[in-house]
Amino acid sequence: MIVGLSSGSWAQVVANNLQVGDITIVEINPGYLPLIRERKNVESVLRNPKVHIVIDDGRRWLVSNPDRKFDFILMNTTFSWRANASNLLSRDFMNLVRTHLNNGGILYYNTTGSEEAMATGARAFPYGLRISNFLAVSESPFTLDKKRWKAALTNYKIDGHPVFDLSNPLQQKRFEEVLSVTGQPNSPTSLLESRASMLNRSADVPTITDNNMGAEWK
Fold first, then answer.
1. Is there a domain that residue 150 lies in?
2. How far apart are CA 21 and CA 170, in angstroms?
3. For an engineered disulfide with 208, which of 146, 192, 201, 214 has Cβ 3.0 to 4.6 Å away?
């Protein structure tokens, strides 16, 4: 599931993953659809048979569809300080998402660098990993498998076009840069941080709730 279609770029990448069989996308603003049709890089996502787009509020849709469960829920969330952002970042929302994850399912979302958003997600789930400014959380243990990721990127195509042309030295360099993200968590050069580290450094950071609305009040 993807909460928020927006320009369609994230959906296009996910839909072209050969290991993804079905995607439900919930988007609150129908105005994005005609804009996507005008952009050749993403317009095919609207015709992809894997993709099912629902125009609705993401949180409301989850509440209204209690029996729908997913292996992966993705949210390229807007800035944490924007109005209504807490609807997708609060502990209350995390508890709702938990009921929609299959066993081993993962929620992956953009914290936009918010310490409160990171702390809230890390506290809401027993397993987590920060990947740059994104947070992956789950009820089950998981790992970032570099070999699997390398194999996926090597063969990744969007609309039949390779994402990386590894015969091109510049693209080969960028390919290696992307793979380097999978370094040792918490190391000085890594973009990864363990849940334990996040919890330790955010002990005094408040948890976002529906009542306090997190950073929306700052």
1. no
2. 32
3. 214
Residue 153: inside a domain, yes or no? no
Q: Which amino acid is present at 26?
A: V
* Interacting residues of 35 by C-beta distance below 8 A, sequence separation 6+: 7
- Overall number of domains in the chain: 1
* Axis-axis angle for helices 169-179, 146-155 (nearest 10): 150
- Give the length of the chain: 218
* CATH number for 125: 3.40.50.150
Question: pTM for the whole thing?
Answer: 0.94
* Per-position pLDDT tens, the chain of length 218: 999 999 999 999 999 999 999 999 999 999 999 999 999 999 999 999 999 999 999 999 999 999 999 999 999 999 999 989 999 999 999 999 999 999 999 999 999 999 999 999 999 999 999 999 999 999 999 998 889 999 999 999 999 999 999 999 999 999 999 988 877 788 766 789 999 999 999 999 999 999 998 877 66
